[in-house]
Amino acid sequence: MDRIALHPNEARSPRRSSRRNRQETDGKRTPWKNTQNRLRPEKTIDEKIKIRRTIMRGTDYWIGGKTLWEMDASHMMEREVVSFTSDASCHDLSEAMIKGRFGGIPIVDTERRLIGIVTEFDLLNALLAGLDLRETSAREVMSEPICITAEMAAEEMMVLFQSGHLIRVPVVDKENRLTGMVTRRDLLAGYLESSLGPLPVF
Question: For bias kind Basic and acidic residues, which ranges apply (predicted)?
Answer without folding.
Answer: 1-13
